[in-house]
Give the backbone structure.
Amino acid sequence: MSAVTARQAPEGVRARMPIVDPATAVARTRPHTSLAETSSQTFSMAWRALKKMRRNPEQFFDVTIQPLLFTAMFAYIFGGAISGNVTSYLPLLIPGIVAQTVLTTCMATGVQLREDMDKGVFDRFKSLPIARIAPLAGPMVADLVRYLIAAGLTFVMGVVIGYRPGGGAPGVLGAILLAIFTGWALAWIFTFIGTIARNARSVQGISMLILFPLTFLSNAFVPVRTLPAALAAFVKVNPVSHLVSAARDLANHGVISGEVGWTVLAGLAVIVIFAPLSVYSYKRHI
Amino acid sequence: MTTAASVCASGLVKRFGELRAVDGIDLEVRQGEIFGVLGPNGAGKTTTLRMLATLLPIDAGQARVFGVDVAREPHRVRQLVGVTGQYASVDEDLTATENLWLFGRLQGLRSADARTTAAGLLAQFGLEDAANKPLSQFSGGMRRRLDLAASLITRPPLIFLDEPTTGLDPRTRGQMWDTIRGLVAEGCTIMLTTQYLDEADQLADRIAVIDHGRKVAEGTPDELKTSIGNSALQLQLAEGADQDLAGQVVRRLAGREPVMSPESGRMTVPLDTADGAADVLIALRQAGLTISSVSVSKPTLDEVFLALTGHDTGDAVQSDESSRDELFMEAR
């Protein structure tokens, strides 16, 4: 420490640095960030999020352990009851688990944003001349990696316990891409919650309240015809059901059905509503 | 252009619910000077700074930074200022180099340029040996320096420093002062907040004293000190002594208003020199007033406040951690 600090001297400062001229600085300022700058800033923020992920590997627990555990658990517990045996339940189950794990990953996006926002570094981000959306969108871009791991591992686990997707590799890939897009879109809801909640714990609480009905009141784990009429009505409009149906058509039959369209539409609607809300709330909040 | 104001604020107001944290403050910071904002905890120093740095919305009043309106064009103001907070606004999970590289990239530097700038700043701040260490191994002083370095990447002409030396040991504090003086020598303007009178005295060209969200005094350190006297005589009047009479005696003799606290019977008399104390004591005895204790000291921040505001500062010195809590309270 002493050797390090001894080198610091104002003389050195004066010699090395150019003289600051306010008039030139004012003339150089620009009124807005351009689209190119915004995307560059978003990717810089994504780089930061990826660095943090690598240094805190426990952040990957939810996207690795959950798909492995839930796939095996649901398959062996409900397989016999719902489809007669495990193997015939897997085509129904795997796309459901994909949707569920991707949604859980979304929730972590909001919780982590809130934790991050409470740190001093967010003050710096706010004081820099950068697009207000960059600190929000950056971590979400990095989270694409997490969605990929979650969705990919679920399929791998399924194949290990006997799932043979009829759609082949292209179908499975399509299902994974759709799940990643939907996850990224829905994550804006949780990002918004992250900007309005008082702390990370309350983000978790609110997110759970949204997450559970969304995943379980869908066709993710059981066929809709087994549900009472009122419940079935909600299940049919739930965007998660559309994702699950679309993923099943893709992975099991290699078919791009109309469900893909509904899923993408629902995802875009969420982005259009919640991205501006999140930026607005972020601007006001800290 | 050299005489134009770096910061020009009028009637700044910030409300947090019922509390008027900043209650109509006017400030003018000239180019190339170190302007100190002095005040106790919760006086509104940090809130004022955060408003000028676009970190908090301004509720009323107007502020311009180099002529650019803070409320109307925050994005342009952010290109002109660097902000260093009371606690490190750097990323704990990144190394020093990675932090500076990221902030450089975010401000439009190319990757290679951001790396060169980061290396240059780390060398300038004596941090090159710690460049690739995790921040958890950094001392408080090293963090502060990294934080200041992060504010200098684009060489902004105005730098806001929020309590730059709170919680630092005396040696590190002296180094921070040298660094700040070095920045001014390059043409930077510095606006800093502090709770320490000696810091304001050492560094600032001009000082604004803030209390309860209002500016109670402004001037050069010398002007402020003269206004409260170079020494202060503290008297504890004996029980039952006539405080009004004591006040009159002092006013007649010293030509200055003593600061009274009627409940405790204490009185502070500002003096030009410590010699004047004897005259005051003699005059009080001649008036038949009994004194139970006496002391003479240099004016402290407490006395500046007592003299300027009529109440004391509460706890003038406190830890980093509680500053941070205060900051959050103010920010919410």
